[in-house]
Amino acid sequence: MTYCLGILLPTGLVLASDSRSNAGVDQVAKVRKLEILRATDERVIAILSAGNLATTQSVVTALKEASQDDAPQGSPGDLRAPKTMFEVALAVGSMLRQVEDHDAKYVTPFGDPSASFLVGGQIKGEAPRLFQIYSAGNFVEASARSCFLQIGETKYGKPILDRALSLGTDMREAAKLALLSFDATLRSNLSVGLPIDLLRYPVDSFSADDLQTFEEHDPYFRELRRAYAEGLNALVNGLPAPP
Amino acid sequence: MTYCLGILLPTGLVLASDSRSNAGVDQVAKVRKLEILRATDERVIAILSAGNLATTQSVVTALKEASQDDAPQGSPGDLRAPKTMFEVALAVGSMLRQVEDHDAKYVTPFGDPSASFLVGGQIKGEAPRLFQIYSAGNFVEASARSCFLQIGETKYGKPILDRALSLGTDMREAAKLALLSFDATLRSNLSVGLPIDLLRYPVDSFSADDLQTFEEHDPYFRELRRAYAEGLNALVNGLPAPP
Predict the structure, then answer these.
(1) Which residues does chain B have within 8 Å of residue A243's beta carbon, measured at their own beta carbons?
(2) Domain spanning A3-217 has what CATH number?
(3) What is the SS3 assignment for A3?
(4) What chain B residue is nearest to A213 in terms of C-alpha separation?
(5) Under a CB-based contact definition with an 8 Å cutoff, are residues B50 and B34 in contact?
(6) Per CB distance under 8 Å, which residues of A are interface residues toward B?
(7) A111, A151, B90, B241: which has the fewest C-beta neighbours closer than 10 Å?
(8) Within 13 Å and on the Cβ side, how many CA atoms surround B180?
(9) Which of B212, B235, B237 to mutate to test the interface with A (most CBs of A within 10 A)?
(10) pLDDT tens-digit readout, B140-181
């Protein structure tokens, strides 16, 4: 399983993913699920992946290779061409359909070939945008009314976001909430695992440099988890019991 | 959807259920999902239901009717006969299979006929016990190593239990944690709804009298939800943001 989270704020994007891949409990690996597809001074595009690992790697690799500086212009996954993030989402959906058309009938007898993605970024001329690409290749966009999107094992980490995240949350606070959302998921589901990759993209920065990786022994993340657990226990203990 | 929770502690049982039944978003009703099947001075047996409402009502009604004081002795769902809660779980599983055998092939074209249950209680001569009956009619039992069981929409309400509930938690605190677990689920999933029925069964009490119903405007539950939301926001705000 996987947990990926994207948050769209007026001040920028916060994107985060875990790193566990498993095909059964005896085949567990760490993989990178957050990739920067393109980062130049006029577009930054990031993708987060959930689902069949062969499918997601095919899609992400094909998009990356078609979007490199020296790749031929105008191939299907070329993300240098789109004028908007909406067109980027269309291109990702198309690439997913292409991979499914190529592989699905061979893979299905062995397991589910499907995959889904979060795609976030900014192209000069528009604000940052965030999309969720479904297994069918269609997609929805985050908005002021629903400012976060999740894929994979989404439920354990949703209550903290429903409670504490709003459009007015600044990016540092949103990054903290993202890590707390992952903390809840890590505690309740073994199929989601460290490290967490976390990208903060400030609006109009056109930089993907603020990408942090939180390992088990990261001092900040350890202290955050410890302080949250301790504070939550104190909070719960302090509330009155039912009459 | 549904959320039902059972907690087994050395000091007794805490059982709780929501009350929403829905077949699509335009057919929503309040139903009771926590029923006392038998309460005498030598056995208290409670059941909590999730899944197809026609199936769960058939199973629960058949068990109740077969277990009444004036029912003929020894019919399949007669819960006066079992010497242990294990035998009660077997009888509930059998009744579920009987109902499925009777109805499933007619119901399946229209929707999923399956159902699952939590069964908790105490029979004189043994300690309180708690079982989860799967759709297949087989079951597992709660133990000191996994002291709570959930059915239905289980994920949103699991993190708070994973964090704060332990064997040493007393029953009043466990009841509070159960309500906080429901609070998280109510906030994140529309298909789980108030009121909450909450039964506290103290070990060796042989009484099902401590059954409370928490409605939307219950002063204790409102205050609990408010204080928890406020405390959690303060806690999160007080934690340091990522470097």
Answers:
(1) 220
(2) 3.60.20.10
(3) strand
(4) B242
(5) no
(6) 155-156, 158-160, 162-164, 172-173, 175-177, 179-180, 184, 187-188, 198, 212, 220, 223-224, 227-229, 231-233, 235-243
(7) A111
(8) 31
(9) B235
(10) 999 999 999 999 999 999 999 999 999 999 999 999 999 999
Read off the tokens for B106: 């007619």
Q: pLDDT tens for chain B, 243 residues: list them.
A: 799 999 999 999 999 999 988 776 677 788 899 999 999 999 999 999 999 999 999 999 999 999 999 999 989 999 999 999 999 999 999 999 999 999 999 999 999 999 999 999 999 999 999 999 999 999 999 999 999 999 999 999 999 999 999 999 999 999 999 999 999 999 888 888 899 999 999 999 999 999 999 998 999 999 999 999 999 999 999 999 998
- Type of residue numbered A156: Y
**Residue A207 pLDDT > 90:** yes
Query: A159–B188: do the CB atoms touch at under 8 Å?
Result: yes
SS3 A30: strand
**Minimum Cα–Cα distance from B239: chain A residue:** A224
pLDDT digits (tens, 9 = 90+) for A133-143: 999 999 999 99
Residue whose pair of structure tokens reads 């948050």 in the numeric block: A7
Please name the member of A160, A172, A239 whose beta carbon is closest to the beta carbon of B241. A172
Put simply, the answer to whether A229 touches B163 (Cβ < 8 Å) is: yes
Residue of A nearest to B210 (CA): A243
Give the strand order in the sheet containing A3-9: A148-152, A3-9, A12-17, A196-202, A211-214
Rounded Cα distance, B33 and B20, in Å: 9
Amino acid at residue number B125: G
pTM (two decimals):
0.89
Three-class DSSP labels, A126-151: CCCEEEEECCCCCEEECCCCCCEEEE
How many whole angstroms separate alpha carbon A15 and alpha carbon B199?
Answer: 42
Tell me the nearest-neighbour CA distance from A207 into chain B, angstroms: 18
ipTM of this model?
0.85
Q: Can you give the residue ranges of every domain in chain A? A: 3-217
Q: Which two tokens stand for residue B81?
A: 């006969």
CATH class of B3-238: alpha beta
